[in-house]
Amino acid sequence: MIRAHSIEAVRGAERAAMADLPQGTLMARAALGLAEVAAARLSDTGGATVVGLVGGGDNGGDTLYAVGHLAEAGYAAAVVLLASSGREGVHAEALAAAEASGVMVHVAAGDPDLLEDAADVVAEADLVLDGIVGIGGRPGLRPDAARLVDAIDDDAWVIAVDVASGLDPSGGAGEDDAVWADETVTFGTPKPAHLLPAGEGATGVLTVVDIGVPFDDVPAAVERLTWDDVATLWPVPQASDDKYSRGVLGVVAGSEAYPGAAVLCTTAAAEAGVGMIRYVGTPTPVGLVHQAVPEAVVGEGRVQAWAVGPGLDTETDHARLQLGAARAALASDLPLVVDAGGLDLVEGRREAPTVLTPHAGELARFLTRLDGSTDRTQPPQSVGAGSDGTVHPVDRPAVTADDVKADPLGHARRLAELTGGTVLLKGSTTFVVTEGQAVRAQADAPTWLATAGAGDVLTGVIGT
Questions:
Q1: Can you tell me the mean pLDDT for 251-273?
Q2: CA 408, CA 137: separation in Å to the nearest integer?
């Protein structure tokens, strides 16, 4: 599993490690690891020239030491200092070490001519180390930094040091005004920006350098499953199992208008390994389920969990039986996964384990119905008086799909808070959010999954 830790957790773990180490040990380890990665990339590309973009603070120090190692290895090495106070604004010991190793030093701050000279140096580099800002940085680049980043040759390999400059390290802001790296070399553990949509594109290939700071016992902020994790977590039948111990799933899905949803959901559950399926539906999908999943039992009965919602019809007379079953499932104390039309039936918190699987539009509609505000930190903007003179808050603005897409994680967290369930927000990055747990952010699914029926299949698999 790939685990990313919050900036606060990283700083705390590093402080604890430094208490038992000589001063400068972690920076020395980080710089050496960074230099080794950079040397390997230069070897791969046949490059010979490296330039480090150096800001103030430890991130700049890592970069200065690393460029010094590369100079000692025989590469043509230079750094451009971007601190507003020039040489005095960067890590003094690292700068002295770089110069002693033969690194050429250029100052870009405070003079337009110096900035343009530095841009010419950057344009000649085969490899650029982005050490402008690190985990203490804010979103966006200063104009002088942006000018140097623009000067990087299209064929140069760009390595971001720890976090691409211009990103919000916590992953909360976009990447439009940031360094777009080919690779990010981060130290100790990934940071949230590396796994969240706001920063993943600018991160490029992620390489983690071990600097001897343990994170195994530090709670993660963001996680991503790998194929090995899936193989480990997937339930495998044991010799003692029977159809009941493998789980009896009740499925309320499909309708006369969308009969295929019933087939997709029940077939997925069967293929995923559920022990038994009880299907509740209208005549057309019942016939199709009989053909596609002959082992499924039609009609209500005892189940151990429910999958509700794909293709559900909430308006016609045919829907009465299904709606009754869906509402009964929601009112039960059984585990439940809810998708599509079933989401409109959820009224609030459930005590039993619940997974909600909306896409952006469904999540927006859900939040508008339960919460009614895009900005839940603010009171209603105005009030009005009813005919009886009572003052009533004016409705807050409806949440839109665009609101959700702009801040998917924030809106998913809000729905998890309101319902007490696990929210699986579908999209190019799928978020899995449960109160009090690390966020799961999966961005490695094939784009071919963006097709009708994929959510129906997902519901059946989760129900299993």
A1: 97
A2: 22
